[in-house]
Automatic annotation (TrEMBL):
InterPro entries: TPM_dom (IPR007621), Znf_TFIIS (IPR001222). GO terms for molecular function: nucleic acid binding; zinc ion binding. Pfam families: TPM_phosphatase. The keyword Metal-binding applies. One of its GO terms (biological process) is DNA-templated transcription. Coiled coil: none annotated. This is TFIIS-type domain-containing protein. Residues 1-22 form the signal peptide.
Length: 308
């Protein structure tokens, strides 16, 4: 009787462990939907994210790859092997080779039961997305929603902010070959230098001319006042600056527009309201797309992550 009870107890323990780790993903069994369809970058095997959220993030990340050459994987699961998002993400990225020869790969990982998250950037992307920016995005866009279990908004906010920063880096220009453009020889370098120098000289001349009184020709005029009007719907700040000529007293005003910083630190990109928000380009993608392939990128540990 005692032996039978011990066997039954052992069975219960083994069954509990089996159930506990039944949904635990490893870098080998995590399904890579991108390999079957190059427009699909979001891995959501446990159904944690809504279909609308997945569709929108796929749209953003597909545009990111086609326009900037940045390959990405966004994975949201319940549990991962080891329970540490950083270790899992860097092993996954290096094993799959997410990115390309310029190492501009991107991985965003969330494990809800392990309560960890990670933004991981390839070495070629660290200049565009330094650790401090990744941390700021997580603290402002991700963690507040993770703490309330709003997985959709947390991931949409994060992906939208990351895409916004990368799209703002003109050094990551896509040439249609699947790779970001690099230096095209010394001819382009001298051309760029000539453009910068010419622009600088024109700017000096233009500023001097703009700061000359149109009535008497005196220079410089003195700034006396300024006003800012915010258009939150358009995400624009309308600036008006007033100048007065100290010689003849003539006044002029000059206006210009700037992107509105809504407190997120990312200029004119509005916060995501929820899974139905439309970001860059919006929309999903129909059938007929072939599978993608990773370009041999590697990761050195750039990015940020933590627990919630």
């Amino acid at each position: 009787m005692k032996k039978a009870f011990c066997l039954f107890l052992l069975f219960l323990v083994c069954r509990s462990v089996q159930l506990l780790y039944a949904g635990t993903y490893t870098v080998d069994n995590l399904p890579m939907v991108y390999l079957q369809d190059k427009t699909k970058h979001v891995v959501n095997p446990d159904g944690i994210l809504s279909a609308q959220a997945v569709q929108q993030m796929d749209s953003l990340l597909y545009r990111l790859e086609t326009e900037k050459g940045v390959q990405s994987v966004v994975a949201v699961v319940e549990r991962i092997e080891g329970g540490e998002c950083y270790d899992f993400a860097i092993t996954l990225g290096n094993k799959l080779g997410v990115g390309n020869r310029q190492n501009t790969g991107l991985i965003i990982l969330l494990s809800t039961q392990d309560r960890c998250y990670q933004i991981l950037t390839g070495e070629g992307l660290e200049g565009t997305l330094p650790d401090a920016i990744c941390r700021r995005i997580e603290n402002r866009r991700m963690v507040p929603y993770l703490k309330t279990g709003d997985w959709d908004t947390a991931m949409l906010q994060t992906v939208t902010a990351v895409c916004g920063v990368i799209h703002g880096d003109d050094s990551l220009l896509h040439d249609g070959s699947g790779q970001p453009t690099g230096t095209k020889g010394y001819g382009l370098m001298w051309l760029a230098l000539a453009i910068v120098t010419g622009g600088f000289l024109i700017s000096i001349y233009s500023n001097r001319k703009r700061n000359t009184c149109p009535r008497c020709g005196h220079s410089p005029m003195h700034r006396t006042n300024s006003q800012v009007r915010v258009d939150r719907f358009q995400g624009i700040e309308h600036h008006t600056v007033y100048y007065r000529c100290p010689k003849c007293g003539h006044t002029v005003s000059r206006s210009h527009d700037e992107p509105f910083d809504n407190g997120t630190g990312f200029g004119g990109f509005p916060p995501v309201a929820g899974p139905f928000h439309r970001g860059f380009g919006g929309g999903g993608f129909g059938g007929g797309f072939s599978g993608g392939s990773f370009g041999g990128g590697s990761f050195g540990g750039g990015g940020a992550g933590g627990k919630f």
